[in-house]
Amino acid sequence: MLAALPGCGGHPKDVLTPVADTSPGSPKVDMLIATTRTRSTVPGEMFNGERALAPAFADMTISIPPSKVRKEGQVAWPKRLPSNPATDFATVKADDLDVDEAKRWLSATVRKTPDGSVLVFIHGFNNRFEDAVYRFAQIVHDSGVRSAPVLVTWPSRGSLLAYGYDRESTNYTRNALETLFQYLAKDPEVKEVSILAHSMGNWLALESLRQMAIRNGRLPKKFKNVMLAAPDVDVDVFSQQIADMGKQHPQFTLFVSRDDKALAFSRRVWGDVSRLGAIDPEQAPYKKELEDNKIMVVDLTRIKSGDSMNHGKFAESPQIVQLIGQRISEGQTLTDSRVGLGDQILVATTGAATAAGNVAGLVLAAPVAVIDQHTRDNYASHVSSVAGTSGAQPAAATVKRCEEGRPTLSCKR
């Protein structure tokens, strides 16, 4: 039962002591840290899982090993310390900042982006500080995102036994996150804000957005995309949170997986109420609510994951991470290109155009085709190109329902 709780697996600890940049050709990710964690006295830990009286800030640079020694979607944890930048994720800078220095970092970094955009990432349950830092570095690098990267990390003890403590820590962090959101909303140099939250971090993101909307009367237009990955959130509470945000809210993209074992256990913990990240978007009452709120859904149920809990698919799927990054960097919502998101997923997964690649792409593109008109317009030809394969018939059936005008989430524009 404990193994099913939403969280991360084991890996080396205390890896954040900066090392010499002995691999200058390796890619680097420079990020701003905003945290309500307590500063650690342990070398290499930097921040622990306890709650601080006031937010703290840091400027960190993570070196990413070359692609020849690491697969996209994976964090290359060091096998021994110190980290080797040629083969491992390695910290090459970790500087504490005060509030004014953090503002200057943000201003300087936003000016370097092509569109004045910021990406805020909020991690989930059972994450030590280094878990959050290295995972975000992986997402930023693998996605190719060009926004200013800001990691919001809240006090998680990094233990399967600390589920209740972690949940209360998200509540503890709500005001601090709203303060950050309010600053981004008022900063004239910031033109667009995207938010990516995972697991329990979705509760923190949604509550802070709700709180901001109530305080200000609405959410700012510059908050464009909110991506909810495997949200460990009560579906009934989510409905109320969305309602409280009002009509002017960001484009929400929901990543679900009905085989998410971590969320299945969380459902039992929370009184057998469905968790948002594990719903079937085609079933009532979810289907109508998603349509009414124009929430885009990407169903990753059929996608294989290296995570035995199937709880981190969004980050481990290179295609999904890359596509998210492209959309954020282009300053667009996830559905406003003439080439549909599903088409891009299909291309990304097809590779050398083998039958297996095409089927995999169709399976992944299918949930996008159900709500993306451009994907749907091109989908029939994708299906016919692999006719007779095991994955084509369900996809063809989806297209047929859309073409016949039978109203489903599949056919909503």
Structural notes for this entry:
With 413 residues, the protein is of the alpha/beta class. 39% of the residues lie in helices and 18% in strands. The chain contains 13 helices and nine strands. It has helices at residues 99-112, 129-143, 163-186, 201-216, 235-245, 261-269, 286-292, 313-316, 318-329, 341-350, 355-369, 373-385, 392-403; strands at residues 28-39, 47-63, 90-97, 117-122, 148-153, 192-198, 223-229, 251-256, 296-299. It has a nine-stranded mixed beta sheet, sandwiched between helices. A hairpin with a 7-residue loop joins strand 1 (28-39) and strand 2. Helix 4 packs parallel to helix 5 (235-245) and helix 12 (373-385) crosses helix 13 (392-403). The radius of gyration is 21 Å and the shape is globular.
Shape: globular
Counting DSSP H or I runs of 4 or more residues, the number of helices is: 13
* Quaternary structure type: single chain
- What proportion strand? 15-25%
Largest sheet: 9 strands, mixed
Q: Name the average pLDDT.
A: 76
Estimate the helix proportion, in percent.
Answer: 25-40%
Spatially, the strands of the biggest sheet line up as 3-2-1-5-4-6-7-8-9
Following the backbone from N to C, one meets helices and strands in this order, namely EEEHEHEHEHEHEHHEHHHHHH
Radius of gyration: 21 Å
Low-confidence stretches are 1-9, 309-316, 330-379, 381-413
Structural class: alpha/beta
Distance between the first and last residues' Cα: 41 Å
Give the beta-strand count. Answer: 9
